[in-house]
Amino acid sequence: MEGVYGFRIGARPRAGYVVENEVCRLSRPEALAVESFYQVDSGQVIRTSLASPPVAASDRLYLVNVSGLGEFRPVYDALTHMAFYNLNPDRIRDLQNPDAGEILRRDGGNLASVLGRLERDNPALKTRIEEYLSKVVPGIRGARAVSVGPKETIVFRQEIAGSSQPWQFYASSMSDGTLRALGILVALLQPGNGQADRVPLIAIEEPEIALHPAAAGVLRASLRDACRRAQVLVTSHSPDLLDDPEISDEEILAVIAEQGETRIARLDPAGRSAIRDRLYTPGELLRLDHLRPEQPGDQDRLTTPSFAWKDGF
Fold this sequence. Notes:
It contains ten helices and twelve strands. It is an alpha+beta fold. Helix 4 (about 110-120) packs across helix 5 and helix 5 packs antiparallel against helix 6 (about 175-190).
């Protein structure tokens, strides 16, 4: 299935908002003549392929109204299963309420349940997470979920000088960096959990926070690994994370905020050329403040649409 979905939100006087415009258009390559679509403006259905379209409202997305219909359900499922993360070590450190452990919460507040489910359903994937973790945090040999009365937490196994066996430490005793590292790795490698493509897109805000700069290479490797099963988006201010000549200019979108407007676009021609010719790594360009988005007048600006890549980060 191929298609386009987008909407525009407008502010109302004295607070509030309105969905000014919403468009969805889908087609199936195997059925060239079949197309499903709708356009809604300010709560009014302007055009649609539906014979009996549901009523629209100006304060909610029409996609919710049509999510029960077979032709639009894939769009709804894809968007609602995307996972966006700003992991909070304090929430990971606290005793957690058990849940099904299907998808990691935004702040990592059910990490123990997700880790426990991984151990039951996909032990090989959990082992790979632990291998990455041992490289990010030397001395860590594993992590597992344990019950503490009606709650759950995580126990880490860590090598201690002079001891023949790793010691065990509860999450409450671990550093922010270790907890964030485990949360990031589980967030990246969780898709599947017994079902393929459960999380089609994973976005993580500044995964390098609280990690030692030397761990940047391992973090990049885990991001590449995750890209084999899901689309991965990462926001970062870290030159160390981008300090790799193997990162291509097509994998980077630059962000700039000017006069209250935030603009996200592919790199400007100078930045793309510097990376392609191996004159600088993206990290070096970031240190020089030369990772800049292209301007509307830059040539070939339409050859690669924003947010349209599958691999990379």
